Amino acid sequence: MTRDVVQRGLYYEELELDARYLHRPGRTLTEADNVLFSTLTMNGQPLHLDAAWSAEQPFGQRLVNSMMTLAVLVGSSVDQLTQGTIVANLGFTDVRFPHPLFHGDTLYAETVVTAKRLSASRPGQGVVTLEHTGRNQDDVVVASATRSVLFWCREAAP
């Protein structure tokens, strides 16, 4: 053995503007995932839990909880981008769900770094804007969100 390699995200300096990071593998969302997430988060919405009622609604079936879709979309980026290199999640804007995700659909996530700047108030850290996009197995966009994240710079990281 010549060296140890620890899996981590990318430091501020390693993030490339306008690069598209593809987060693989995708995640197939099941009925069990959706019911568990919805009940754990106290979301009793029949569109997520009641198959008979949902069958009579415009989509004709239950929808995957959009907050679960967002959580998996962002979570899919962690190993590649922020694992051990994030200081804090600063916020989200422009969260959209243009197409529903259904039980059995697979969510594929990708992220584009759209802006980055060193923090004026926190030396050794930088603010990065990430645009997350989620697509189903048919390449249809099912979710998007803009996220601001505070990253460590390599030399300042603990």
From TrEMBL:
Family: Belongs to the enoyl-CoA hydratase/isomerase family.
Family matches, as CDD domains: FkbR2
Domain MaoC-like: 18-134
Name assigned to this protein: MaoC family dehydratase
Gene3D superfamilies attached to this UniProt entry: Hotdog Thioesterase (3.10.129.10)
Membrane-spanning intervals of the chain: none
Organism: Cellulomonas rhizosphaerae
Source species, domain of life: Bacteria
